[in-house]
C-alpha cells in the first residue's frame, strides 16, 4: 500500500500521541475527522498500522529490566518456531525480537529481583540446553525514545528535534494501589480502551478511572501511546547496533544522545551495563542509508568505541502492542 502526505500527517500525529481523537487530529492536520477515521482504518486494514502500544516504564513499578541475548542452533524451522513461541510465552518476557547475526534473539525481561531472572534463565537452559550456544545479559538502565522521523511530513518537522519523546528509568516510583494496577493492566493490554471497557475490566466508577488514568500518565508509568508501524510495508529496514565503550566515555554518551535527536535514522537508545554499554535502534531505507547512519554514530563515538556489532532485525515476535482487535496480552505486573 502506498501512503501519501495526508497518511503521513496522521501517522505523525499518532506518533506524538496515540490517544489523540479524530476531532483533535483534524484540527492539527486540517484533515476532516471523517477522513482521519477512514484513513486510520484503512492503514490498519492494510497492515501499515499493526496496533497501538503503551510505553510502560516497568522500573517505576519496582521491576528491573534485563536484555537477554541468545545465540542458538536450531535444527529446523519448526524447532526455531517452537523456541520463539516458548520465549514469547514467558510472562516476564515483555519484548522478543528475532535477529540475524552475532545474536539470534533479543529478549527484554522484567523481574522483581535476581531470583526471578535466574528462574527465567534456568527454565530456558533446562528446556533448550542443546539449542543455546551462548547468551549474554545486560542490565538495562535508561531508555530514550525518539520520533519515528520518516513518517513526519514538512508541517510537523518542527516537532522532530524538540526533545526526547520518552525517557524511562528515571524518577521515583508512584504508589499505586490494587485498583490502580487493575487500570494499568487494562491500558497496557489495550491502550485505546474506552472508559466503558476499563470500567468493565476494573469495576471502578468513571470518575475513579479518570483520576487513576491521569495519575498513571502524569507519573510517567505510561509515558506515551504510540502506533506500531510495519516497517517492511513502509519500505524500511531495521538494525540494532550493540556498542561497548572504552573507560571514561560518559560525557561523550551524553553528546551522542543529543545528536540522536536530530538524526533521521535513530528511533531508540538503551543504556545498559554488561558486555555492551548502549544499544541503538535504527530504521533505514536501504543499505546506503545504514552506511550513512553508522558514519554519523562513529563520527561522534568512534574514538570511544571498543566494539560495535550491527545486527539486522528479522521480526518482532512479542511486543507491547495491542492487536487491532484489542485482544489483551499478558503483562508481568500481577
Residue share in helices?
A: 25-40%
Q: Provide the residue-averaged pLDDT.
A: 85
Shape: globular
> Which assembly state applies to the chains in this document?
single chain
Can you list the strand order of the major beta sheet? 2-4-3-11-8-10-9-5
What is the end-to-end distance? Answer: 40 Å
CATH superfamily of the largest domain: Lrp/AsnC effector binding domain/regulation of amino acid metabolism (RAM) domain
Portion in strands? 25-35%
How many DSSP helices? 11
How would a crystallographer describe the biggest sheet?
A: 8 strands, antiparallel, barrel
Structural class: alpha+beta
CATH-assigned fold name of the largest domain: Alpha-Beta Plaits
CATH architecture of the largest domain: 2-Layer Sandwich
CATH top level label of the largest domain: Alpha Beta
Give the number of DSSP strands.
12
Low-confidence stretches: 158-165, 321-334
Question: Which features characterize this protein?
Answer:
single chain, 334 residues, alpha+beta, Arc Repressor Mutant, subunit A, Alpha-Beta Plaits, 4 domains, 8-stranded antiparallel beta barrel, 3-stranded antiparallel β-sheet, 11 helices, globular, disordered C terminus
Explain this structure to me?
The protein has 4 domains: 1-46, Orthogonal Bundle (Arc Repressor Mutant, subunit A); 58-141, Alpha-Beta Plaits; 143-167 and 230-317, Lrp/AsnC effector binding domain/regulation of amino acid metabolism (RAM) domain (Alpha-Beta Plaits, 2-Layer Sandwich); 175-218, Arc Repressor Mutant, subunit A, CATH 1.10.10. Mean pLDDT is 85; it is low at 158-165 and 321-334. It contains 11 helices and 12 strands. The protein is of the alpha+beta class and 334 residues long. The strands form 2 sheets. Strands 2-4-3-11-8-10-9-5 form an 8-stranded antiparallel β-barrel. Strands 7-1-12 form a 3-stranded antiparallel beta sheet. It is globular. A hairpin with a 4-residue loop joins strand 9 and strand 10.
Amino acid at each position: 500500500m502506498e501512503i501519501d502526505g495526508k497518511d503521513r500527517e496522521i501517522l505523525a500525529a499518532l506518533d506524538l500521541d496515540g490517544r489523540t481523537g479524530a476531532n483533535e487530529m483534524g484540527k492539527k492536520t486540517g484533515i476532516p475527522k471523517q477522513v482521519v477515521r477512514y484513513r486510520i482504518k484503512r492503514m490498519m486494514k492494510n497492515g501499515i498500522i499493526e496496533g497501538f502500544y503503551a510505553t510502560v516504564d516497568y522500573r517505576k513499578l519496582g521491576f528491573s529490566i534485563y536484555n537477554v541475548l541468545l545465540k542458538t542452533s536450531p535444527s529446523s524451522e519448526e524447532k526455531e518456531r517452537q523456541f520463539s513461541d516458548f520465549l514469547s510465552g514467558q510472562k516476564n518476557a515483555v519484548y522478543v525480537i528475532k535477529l540475524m547475526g552475532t545474536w539470534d534473539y533479543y529478549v527484554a525481561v522484567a523481574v522483581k529481583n535476581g531470583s526471578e531472572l535466574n528462574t527465567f534463565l534456568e527454565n530456558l537452559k533446562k528446556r533448550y540446553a542443546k539449542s543455546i550456544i551462548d547468551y549474554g545479559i545486560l542490565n538495562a538502565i535508561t531508555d530514550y525514545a525518539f520520533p519515528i522521523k520518516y513518517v513526519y511530513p514538512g508541517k510537523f518537522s518542527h516537532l522532530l528535534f524538540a526533545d526526547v519523546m520518552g525517557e524511562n528509568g528515571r524518577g521515583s516510583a508512584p504508589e499505586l494501589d490494587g485498583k490502580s494496577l487493575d487500570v494499568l493492566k487494562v491500558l497496557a493490554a489495550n491502550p485505546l480502551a474506552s472508559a466503558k471497557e476499563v470500567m468493565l475490566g476494573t469495576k471502578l466508577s468513571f470518575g475513579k478511572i479518570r483520576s487513576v488514568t491521569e495519575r498513571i500518565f502524569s507519573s510517567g508509568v505510561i509515558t506515551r501511546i504510540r502506533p506500531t508501524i510495519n516497517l517492511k510495508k513502509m519500505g524500511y529496514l531495521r538494525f540494532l547496533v550493540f556498542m561497548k565503550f572504552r573507560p571514561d566515555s560518559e560525557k561523550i554518551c551524553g553528546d551522542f544522545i543529543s545528536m540522536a535527536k536530530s538524526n533521521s535514522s535513530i528511533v531508540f537508545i538503551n543504556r545498559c551495563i554488561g558486555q555492551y554499554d548502549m544499544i541503538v535502534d535504527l530504521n533505514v531505507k536501504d543499505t546506503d542509508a545504514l552506511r550513512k547512519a553508522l558514519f554519523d554514530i562513529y563520527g561522534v563515538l568512534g574514538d570511544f568505541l571498543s566494539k560495535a556489532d550491527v545486527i539486522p532485525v528479522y521480526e518482532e515476535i512479542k511486543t507491547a502492542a495491542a492487536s487491532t482487535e484489542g485482544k489483551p496480552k499478558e503483562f508481568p505486573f500481577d
